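User: Hello, beginner here. Can you help me understand these amino acid letters and fold codes? It all follows right here:
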Amino acid sequence: MIQHGYELDFSKQTFGVILYGAPGIGKTTLALSDGNMGADTLLIDLEHGVGRTNPIHRMNANVLSASTYEEVLKDLETDQAKAAKTIVIDTAGSLVDYLKDWAFRTKPDAKTKAGAWNPMRGFGHVKTEIESFVNKIKTVMNKNVIFIFHCDEKTENDGSTKQRLRCEGSFKNIVWTGIDFGAYIQMLGNKRWACFSPEDEFFAKGCHGIHGHVEIPDLNSGVPNDFMAKLFDTARKNMIQENAAVADQMETYRKVIEGVKDMLEGVTDQDSANACMKAIADMPHALTSKKECGMMLNQKCASLGLKYEKATASYVPAGDQK
């Protein structure tokens, strides 16, 4: 089905998210924050670290544990995986390790003649497969996907430090392309913050009204673990409002364009052309309607042998221009 952009329904929009930060900052707990103790989440626990999270925050989550990439793919076909709203990959760096193992075992050219790992060929297979894997979750299964990364502190030539995703190969760079939100999790004072706007120290990404530093609630005070649920809900509402605003402008745009088309039928000479120009200037324009209407009038006037004269700000016969 083909729709106009302003007709799209964003009420069930899914999102791609990167959460990264130092060990122990609470990335996994944050990723499980669907507000129902993880009931709508499938956690792909590739680091076997789910036991380090508070039991109350993972009580209802489904946890996928696997020793090979093939097992991960098989478990994605289960009813539990299909029922989940959000799939969490903990961690994305470990997923690359699983794919290296998969490529080494199944792709002959991922090995050198000596039987060692072939980085060029091997990572080529990893890159292709990981793009297919992410596409399956986001597009085919239509799920939110949250990538958890550890981070590394890198020292630049000027002595400044940068926080970067910890991951082998090019995935740490290409993963940002299909991501809606990327948050660096850090402590500022005694509070945790999800930072959605890039700064000199770290990469980040925000959209649909989600920007800047967003405080992560202290769950020890009995606050429900629903940070991501609220973030997704806010983003969807903002998308709907943004789309509605554009829809209103589109309605004005269409009315103006159709009105000018009707007026142009009555443009037959210099006087009617200038009257039409004034009427166009007085119209309540939206989007690109003013420019398009001016072009339509210019084309009609050209067919009548008229041209716009800047000196008089009017249409005159082409041969009379000063």
Summary: Residues 247-320 form one domain. The mean pLDDT is 91.
